Amino acid sequence: MDTLPSFPNPVRSIFEAIRDDSVIVNIGPSHPATHGTVQIIAELDGERVLRTDVHCGYLHRGFEKECEDHTWHNLIPYVDRLNYVSALVNDFAYCDAVEQLMGLEITPRCRYLRTLLSEYSRVVDHLTCVAAGLMEMGAMTAFLYLVMVRDFMYEHLAALTGARVTYSYGRIGGLARDLPDGWLVRLEEILVQYEEFVGRVHALVDRNRIFIDRLRDVGTITTADALSLGVTGPILRSTGVPRDLRKDTPYLAYAELDFDIPVGIKGDNYDRYFVRMREMDESVYMIRQLAQMLPGGPINVDDRRCTFPEKTLVYSQIESLINHFKLVMDGPSVPPGEIYCAHEAPNGELGFYLVSTGGGTPYKVHVRSPSFVHMGAASRMLDGGQLADIVPTFGSINMIGGECDR
Amino acid sequence: MAAASDLEALRRELVPAAGPATLSHGSFVFVLAPRELVPTVRRLRDEFGFDLLLDVTAVDWPGAVLRFEVVHHLYSTAHKVRVRLKTRVAADDPTVDSLGALYGSAAFMERECHDMYGIGFRGNFDLRPILLYEGFVGHPLRKDYPKQREQPLVPYRD
Questions:
Q1: Which pTM does this prediction carry?
Q2: Span B4-91 CATH architecture
Q3: Interval A357-378 mean pLDDT
Q4: Chain B touched by A243 (CB under 8 Å)
Q5: Which CATH class is domain A63-368?
Q6: Do A100 and B25 lie within an 8 Å CB cutoff?
Q7: CA separation for the pair A383, A389 (Å, rounded)
Q8: Which residues lie below 8 Å from residue A372, measured CB to CB, with a gap of 6+?
Q9: Residue range A153-165: mean pLDDT, rounded
Q10: In chain A, where the domains are located
């Protein structure tokens, strides 16, 4: 082991206490309120936070390195595990990037289904974020209401994909399988439940004095700061900017949908709570439109470069057998090129930068994850606040360790 | 997508300053020399409304004369246009100028790029490891870093 470098403390802060009466405290990485593993080193003056230094990387697992060693299809379970609260959005953003690189156009049914499931995932993600944020401030009833609805959605997605959280449901050029019978009927039942329980949460907390006092004017960030720090998604919108990729550069079926972009007033924790709540309502509105618009037809493109042949044909035709074999062993053939493809994930802009040199394996996969960039902006929201506000502010950023640390 | 006139204005204005541009999957792609990076980004930000620096990463091309390609992605919320800037640097001095003076988001993302590829960013004084840990040897996303190499912080038990 003497080849290893020696270092006294693997995590150092960038600063030391500059004043006699200030103290440096370490929060995390293994703290229940860090939603995963992040470390915040804070210099305190009494209860007031003077400066913070945010460290991430405790969940780094070499995602991008591993991706360079697998075929394009085999990455789908990996990208699921980036933002594991809304895994389908990652799936579809990744598949969209590869499809654009291949020049594929997905079928109309697949396009609408992906849009529907993206919005469904957005509801799940926001429910989780809002529920956890409320629970951390002691609102246990609101937490249980929201997580109960979320669990209906998890079970419902499990009926479609076979898994509760990490679905591996996207495919390059389509989807793993079509909707089972009665799925849309159950969807409407869940949306009705959603409305009832989210209504109760609105009644419980929106005008609750304790809640407002904890969140109003806490963790504020201005539009200029947010843009400079690369902040996207609900946090940027909470500062009053209606910037949303679904409207700005519409992808999937968003151009055909009617929806609003909720924005906040001043970018504090209360605005972030409210923007997320309103976005869920818009998502539900979109899901209902999509369920009406959903066309029939196949869900996979008929392209032998990426779509697997039917199993019966694999067993009966030599061409299909070879096709299946080549797709498994060599992977889909993606022409040389590079692409940056961004989708509006629940947390912000999720971008995939892919470089292909041809063949079945990517040369480089880079994920522009909103959580990582938001961690760079977290200090701006935490500095100057109270120590006890670190937890709600951090919760409202909704850092997801899987995509932050990759 | 952006209006065609915006794209055309960008192309007309920027191409003489920044060299040949191509349009690839909806993004403008510029290939820059390292010294052109900061002036070009400043012009993009101030004159063309590229207010978001989205991403900083690199691509490793072992064997090439200029081995590393530092890639910046920018976005204009006003014009809804994306730009990709590619800067090639040599392996013996893989350094470009930091964009930290122009965008606050650069600091964190440059740290990641430094972690993963060993790219130096002149002007960024906080290039501590961010995804890796203090004391990690090497840069894991370089193509010559073996995927299976382990650097355990605590020795394995027999």
A1: 0.88
A2: 2-Layer Sandwich (3.30)
A3: 90
A4: yes
A5: mainly alpha
A6: yes
A7: 10
A8: A56, A403, A404, A405, A406, B108, B109, B112
A9: 90
A10: 63-368
